[in-house]
Structure formats: structure tokens, C-alpha cells
Amino acid sequence: MASSRTRRPRVTPRKRPAQARSRETVRAVLEAAARIFEERGAAAATTDAIARRAGVSIGSLYQYWPSKEALLAELGACHVLAAHAALAPARERLARGAPPDEAIPALVGAMVDLHASRPRLHRVLWEDGVLGDDARHAVAALHRSVCDALARWLAARHDVDVSDAALAARVACDALAALAHGVALSRRGGAAPRAVREIETLLRRYLTGRD
User: Fold this and answer.
1) Helix/strand/coil (H, E, C) string of 50-113?
2) pTM for the predicted model, two decimal places
């Protein structure tokens, strides 16, 4: 008797590229996958379309990824690595106790830039609910680490105006993530720099009580 449960597609890569030519194939397929997912969404994207866009055979694609879900998982992992890299300079400024006029713009700029990098793909990964649990947990852990760094920064500085550093940091980080996401998805021409400055002003007023 057949099982009534739907079999979940395999999402782990079959193998990793070992040679330069193989690494180039992997890069081409991942870029093609990102573009197809951006254009069509996760549901309508197919591995055939991704292979054609990458200029490789479907067999070459399947050497590395057994399904489009595996490609989505790989893109999610790439997103996590990009998030760590984007936020590292801002976290370093917080760790060394940089003044608000340096630390806050660095944090806001990093968060907006992260969300502005391929916002349509970001929307597919997050809003379409296709980002894997491992990637979601990794992003959540990174968010907590930024909140913790901000809380330590707030607690150590005498030119901020908060009574509960941990709570203020969590509110600020949650608000910043939501605002950066919104700006990235709606940015048009010169509107983005003004929006970024407004977010900086909002956080500066909230955390320091001044402009």
C-alpha cells in the first residue's frame, strides 16, 4: 500500500565542485537560478529553465543539485554568508564602542544594503516560505547576535538615553530590519538615500534622544 505522505524533495547538494571549470558551472547555475526565481517565483521555476538560462545541460545541473528545492537551499545559504559579511563592519564598530554618529549609520547602511541586494530573490526566499529551516535559524541567530552587540554598545556608552539596553536593542534591531526590508523593496531612484537618512534619524533619536 502506497504511503499517503508526500515525499519531500532532497535539498542537499549531490557534490561540490573540485575543479575551476566545475566551479564556473556551479556559479553559472546559481546565478541562473537566482534570476529565474526572481522572474517566476519558486512555484513556477523549473530546473529545465534554469539549465537553459545557465547554458548547461540538465544533466550537468543534476550532477550538483537533485531538485530546484536544493537550489533554493543553496541560495539561502549564500544569503546567510552575505548577511554575515555585510554586517561584520557594523558589528566591529559596535564592539569597539564607536560613537553614535559612526555606529548608527554603519548599522543602518549595512542592513539596507543587505536587503537591497536582489530584493526580489529575498522576497522569494522569505515571503514565499521556501527558505529552509537551517537558513532561517542561521539568519535568526545572526539577528540575535547583532541585537546583543547593540545592547552591549548601549550599556557601555554614556551618551545614549535608554533604561533597558537589551530591550532597546531588540526594538531597534526589529524596527531596522523591517524598515530596511521595506525600503529595499520599494526603492526608486533618489528616494533610497533620503529613506536611509530618515531611518538613521529615527534610530538616533530613539537611542540617544537627539538628532
Assistant:
1) HHHHHCCCHHHHHHHCCCHHHHHHHHHHHHHHHHHHHHHHHHHHHHCCCCHHHHHHHHHHHHHH
2) 0.79
146, pLDDT greater than 90: yes
At 44-79, the pLDDT tens digits run 999 999 999 999 999 999 999 999 989 998 898 888
| Cβ atoms of 207 and 163 closer than 8 Å | no
Q: To which H or E segment does residue 192 belong?
A: helix 191-208
Residue 6, in any domain of the structure: no
Closest CA to 120 of 185, 42, 33: 185
Contact (CB, 8 A) for 166 and 174:
no
Q: Which of 12, 46, 66 is the last residue of a domain?
A: 66
What CATH number is attached to the domain comprising 176? 1.10.357.10
Task: Residue 122: name the closest of 86, 172, 160, 167 by CA.
Answer: 86
Residue type, 125: L
Q: How far apart are CA 23 and CA 2, in angstroms?
A: 40
C-alpha 189/C-alpha 120 separation (Å) is: 17
Domain that holds residue 26: 20-66
Q: Decide if 2 is inside a domain.
A: no
Cα separation, 34 vs 37, in Å, equals: 5
